[in-house]
């Protein structure tokens, strides 16, 4: 029986908290192999790291494996640089950077024409169910209803509102139909709160609240690992996490 070769995975970022969580998950997965750590901005060497888990490279073209899956949970500028370099490097991409703008969307569309790209502001599988509930409520409620979104994150989070908050607001607005106003978003950046989103909707005589709170970054991993395995063998195109869950993981040969 032929034993499948593990999927080579490169993780962007050397010091980011989510990057560290993803690296460890890849190391622990028998069907994945951490082939490199990618830092597009060369940092000072860390003398305390005597036995690094994978080599550090500073250009996408220097990755040691052909056709790896590159995972990116960094910042807007680094993600733009990654997408720019990916134009000429054959690799699949799993992107979880929040706060992506129009420039990123143009680059994603261009890069996605030649390889699989999975992009999501939030890789929680539970959030998919929250989103469906918000869409159903918006579609079924009458004209007296409106909604707002609360967004709470740790003090160091740079984008405001978060990509998840904008995603939930767009889900409500899209389900309400053409011309519907977007829900107001209120953002807080306080202490060490990891991630909390609250959708508040109200109509005549009714009030509904939906709360999604992340207490541990490892809760994102089922969605991230599913996206990695999907991107490793999927055809070209830009997809969200909902698409990954809806479609079967292609067989890797």
TrEMBL record:
Recorded metabolic or biological pathway in which this protein acts: Amino-acid biosynthesis; L-lysine biosynthesis via DAP pathway; (S)-tetrahydrodipicolinate from L-aspartate: step 4/4
All copies of the Dihydrodipicolinate reductase C-terminal domain together span 130-244
Query: Which Enzyme Commission numbers does its entry carry?
Result: 1.17.1.8
* An MF annotation (GO) of this entry: 4-hydroxy-tetrahydrodipicolinate reductase
Gene3D superfamilies, alphabetized: Dihydrodipicolinate Reductase, domain 2 (3.30.360.10), NAD(P)-binding Rossmann-like Domain (3.40.50.720)
User: Is Hydrolase one of the keywords?
Assistant: no
Protein family membership: Belongs to the DapB family.
Q: What is this protein called?
A: 4-hydroxy-tetrahydrodipicolinate reductase
Which organism is this entry from?
Kitasatospora aureofaciens
């Amino acid at each position: 029986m032929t034993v499948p070769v593990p999927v080579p995975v490169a993780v962007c970022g050397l010091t980011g908290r989510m990057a560290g969580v993803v690296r460890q998950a890849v190391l622990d997965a028998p069907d994945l192999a951490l082939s490199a750590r990618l830092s597009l901005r060369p940092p000072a060497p860390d003398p305390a790291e005597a036995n690094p888990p994978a080599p550090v490279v500073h250009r996408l073209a220097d990755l040691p494996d052909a056709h790896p899956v590159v995972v990116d949970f960094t910042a807007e500028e680094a993600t733009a640089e990654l997408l720019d370099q990916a134009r000429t490097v054959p690799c699949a991409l799993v992107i979880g950077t929040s706060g992506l703008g129009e420039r990123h969307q143009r680059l994603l569309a261009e890069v996605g024409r030649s390889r699989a790209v999975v992009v999501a502001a939030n890789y929680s599988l539970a959030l998919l169910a929250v989103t469906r509930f918000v869409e159903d409520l918006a579609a079924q409620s009458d004209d007296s209803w409106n909604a707002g979104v609360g967004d709470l994150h740790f003090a160091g989070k740079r984008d405001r509102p978060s990509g998840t908050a904008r995603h939930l607001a767009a889900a409500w607005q899209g389900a309400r139909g053409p011309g519907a106003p977007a829900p107001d978003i209120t953002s807080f950046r306080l202490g060490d709160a990891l991630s909390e989103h609250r959708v508040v909707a109200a109509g005549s005589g009714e009030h509904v609240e939906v709360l999604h709170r992340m207490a541990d970054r490892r809760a994102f991993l089922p969605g991230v690992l599913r996206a990695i395995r999907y991107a490793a063998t999927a055809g070209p195109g830009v997809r969200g996490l909902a698409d990954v869950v809806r479609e079967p993981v292609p067989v890797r040969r």
